[in-house]
C-alpha cells in the first residue's frame, strides 16, 4: 500500500498541458480526476528505484485547468512544496534535525492514520491492469490518494464497492458488521450502495435493516436522492417500490424529482411522479423541478410535470419563471410548449428584464422570433431603463437587432436616456452600428445626465464612444452620417489628441471639430488640445497648420514680472486630464502649462513652432527663463525679437484672412502650389529647378 498526496490548486506544467483537451469535453469532473490520478501514479511508478521502494507522491499535472479543484477556505499557513510520499509510522520517534520554523496549520495525516482505505473515502476505482483499488479524498486543497491491494481491502467495503451481493450477504449473516454504523459524512452502507448503483446489494441491506430506507446523511441526503443524482434507475425504482419517501429533500431543499430534472433523466422523473413526488416543491433559491426540466431543454419532462400539476407560473427568488428560463437558455421548443400551455409571454424578473429582453441579450434568435410572433412587448424596459434592442446592440446580435428595429418605439428609446447607437459604439459593434445608422437612428443623440454621470469623462455622444475606443471605422460612419463632433463637454478631438491618434485627429478636423475648444471645467487661455500634444510635435504642428490659436499661447497676466510658484495637486494628479464636478478656480495660462515637469523639456521646440504662426509677440519672463535654460535655444529667443521678416508677417496675414474653414480646405483652393506650401510652412525643394 502507498499513500500519495496530489496537489490540485498549484498544478505544475508538463508536456500534457499542450495537448488538445477537446477529448475531455464530455467527461465529468470525477472522470477527469480518475484519469489524472491514474496518469500521475503511473508517472510515479516510473520513478521508483526498486520494487521495494515506496511509491512516490505524484503531482497531478494532467488535469485540465478548468477542472482543477479550488483551494480550501482555510489553506495551510505554509504548505510543503513537495510533501513526503511515505511519512514515518511514528513521527515522534525520529524528529527532524531542523524542525520547520512555521509548521503547517493543518499537518498531513500520518501513515498510521491513513494506512488503510476505509469508508470515509469519497471516491474510488478498481484498476483493470492490477488487483488494486485506488481511493481518494479531498484534504486541505489536496487530493489524498491511497492505493491498496484488493486482497488487503476490508471485505465488507470491497463487497459494497464491487457490488458483490453474495459476499455482502455472507458478511451480514456472520453479524460481523454493524449496518447502522455511519462514516464521517453520515453515510450508511445503504447510502453507498445507492450511490454506486448496486441494486442487488441494496436489496440485501434493506432486507436486513428496512427502517434505514429514508435514513439521511449529514447533508440530509437519502439513499433515493443519491441514486437519482447518480442516474441509477434500477435502484431508484426499487427504493420507491419499497416505500422510499420521494419528497425528502437535502440541505438545499432539493428533492429527488428536482435532481432528476436537473440530470435530464426522463425515466426517473416518470418513476418519481408515479410514486407521488411533489412537482411544486422548490429549492432554497425557489427553483422548482419545472425550472430544471426547462434548463435541460426536455419537452417530455415538462409535459410530465405539468400533467402532474406543476406550477407553470412559479418564480424563484430572482423572479424568474419557467418561461423566462426557457428564453434565457435558448430552449425554443420548450418555450413554444410553455406558451401553448398558457405561460405569460411578457413575464419579467425582479430586475424588470422580460423574457424577450433575456433572449435578445443572449442572442437566441429562434426564441426571439417565437416571442415576437406571440406579440411580446418590445418596448418593455428593465429597471435600468434598457429595452431589448439596447442589449442586443450591446452584445452584437445583428439579426435580433434587425428584427427589433421596426417594432421598437423611437419615442420610448429617447425616454430611456441612451440610444442603441451608444451601446453598439461602446462595444465596437460596427455591423450593428451601421445597421442602426441606415435605419435612421439619430447619430447626434445624447446620453441623459444620469447615464452621462456613470462615466468618469461625462461623455454624451455616440461619436465620443467611437473615438474613445480608437475605432476609426465607426467614427467615419458616424461623421459621414452627420454626427456633430462638438457636442461633448470633453471634445472628442481632445480624446484623439491625447491618444496621439493622428488619423483620428485628421478625420475629426476635416469634419469640423473645434480645434480651439477648451475644457469648461478647467478653462485655459489657449486651446486645450495643445495640452495633450506638447511632447508630440508632429501633432502640435498639424493643429497649428489647421488654425489652432497660437497667439493665445503668448498671453500672460504677469508679462515681464516675476511669476508665482507653480501649484501642484495634493494627490499628484494633473487635474487638467480629468473631468470632475469641481470647477477650476482660475484660468490656466500657457506659460504655466509649459512649466510642468512632464513637458518643460519640450519648451524650446514648442515655442519655436508657435513663433511660426504669430507676428510680433513679447515673451513673458517665464518663457524667457525656459529659453535661457538651454544654450541651443538661444536662437529661438532671437527669433522672437522684433522686427519679424516681412514675408513671415504676410503669411500670417493671409492665413488670418483665409480663416479656419478655408485653411482646412487649402488644397482645394484656387491657389498656386508654391503659395499653398508657403502658407503651410512646408520647405520647398528647388532640385527640379536647379
TrEMBL record:
Residues 622-685 form the SOCS box domain. Residues 62-112 are annotated as: Disordered. Keywords: ANK repeat. Coiled coil: none annotated. It holds the Pfam family SOCS_box. InterPro entries: Ankyrin_rpt (IPR002110), Ankyrin_rpt-contain_sf (IPR036770), SOCS_box (IPR001496), SOCS_box-like_dom_sf (IPR036036). ANK repeats lie at residues 219-251, 252-284, 285-317, 318-350, 351-383, 384-416, 416-448, 458-490, 488-516. One of its GO terms (biological process) is intracellular signal transduction. PANTHER family: POTE ANKYRIN DOMAIN, POTE ANKYRIN DOMAIN FAMILY MEMBER 3C-RELATED. This is SOCS box domain-containing protein. It comes from Pangasianodon hypophthalmus. The lineage of its organism: Eukaryota, Metazoa, Chordata, Craniata, Vertebrata.
